[in-house]
Amino acid sequence: MNTQLTYMTGFGNEFETQALPGALPIGQFTPQKVKYDLYTEQFSSTAFTAPRAANRRTWMYRLRPSVVQGDYQAIDNGLIRTAPITEAVTPPTMLRWNPIDIPTKPTDFIDGLITMAANGSANGQSGIGIHVYVANNSMQGRYFYNADGEMLFVPQQGELLLHTECGKLTVKPGEIAVIPRGIKFSVDLLNDTARGYICENYGHALELAERGPVGANGYANDRDFQYPVAAFEDKEGDFELVSKFNGNLFSCEIKHSPFDVVAWTGNSAPYKYDLSRFNVINTVSFDHPDPSIFTVLTSPSATEGMANVDFVIFPPRWMVAENTFRPPYYHRNIMSEFMGLIEGVYDAKEHGFVPGGASLHNCMSPHGPEADVFEKASNAELIPQKYENTLAFMFESRYIISPTKYALEGQERQTNYTDCWRTIKKQFNGAEDSL
Predict the structure, then answer these.
(1) pTM of this prediction?
(2) Catalytically active residues, by annotation
């Protein structure tokens, strides 16, 4: 399969793209007749009256309007869950999981989606759902859209081809992709198997983190975000459209491919980002900065500075802090943290936290380096050190993250996780010359 794709660049730009010349109207959005006898359809992922700076909408020019489909019927939700999670009691215990195995029977993206945790309320449009996907099959004759939230893809194994109404984009480990709430898409595997993480954002759409005193450059730069060009599909047959709506899955019959958009213009569209382009800002003197310096995208809440969700990464970087305990310090936090590992080793957890795995440290639950890491870092020679071949991430939210019953009772849970701190000993020395 040829996956050499063309992209447009710039986060949240007002794009325009057409697969056929003249398909995109000039000077207006809804002419009486559109060239090629196309239908006009507006896709809005914010309210019409949202402020201009926050308003997200796209005009599509397509072979058929989206109303040409069958009636929806409820289908089995499988292991997909939606906030609020009520099937299990949320403990304050620190939790960690091994990777979920790739299935042996044919499984596509929809069937291989497993909810690990969630918070807030999808119906109330706040909070997030956190899922893992495992698949060994492409979606064949199936299409999907999520009316509950936008979807942030974080691949850990295997490259994906995301075919959307707006065009095609590929995403592989080390990259991320975001599909707006309501956009129809399918997932094709470009390798034999795939595994990764999904943050389903029920709240305010993800945006770039502010830079503050850092200035005009650094962190994630607008220019590095890539959007697909129009690539329509004129295909008829017996297909299935699956919708996630108000916490449940529904299916309807559709007799044509929904990827029949010949042209589009707007700022609400899927996009991708290469995490290696994140410009890391770090200390060059002393002390360990707060992890907020690694924020790539954020979904703000009504309280300034307390995000509905932050997407934070821990990429390769230099550590040069002098007279400093360099791994993350022990802390308790009003924010709740779900972490995953894409590759390598995370500096605070050298054992047990493996690529494809995950951990959850909820609001005010203490966490930090395991005992061995503390001893090693407390006695290390503080020469400049390059953290290489590593990439971890965090979904951090102001709301308590509730694990699902599957997450609490499944075979992947490491029930001995807290043992990594049990060997920490009191080392108190009351002598004035102890240092």
Answers:
(1) 0.96
(2) 288
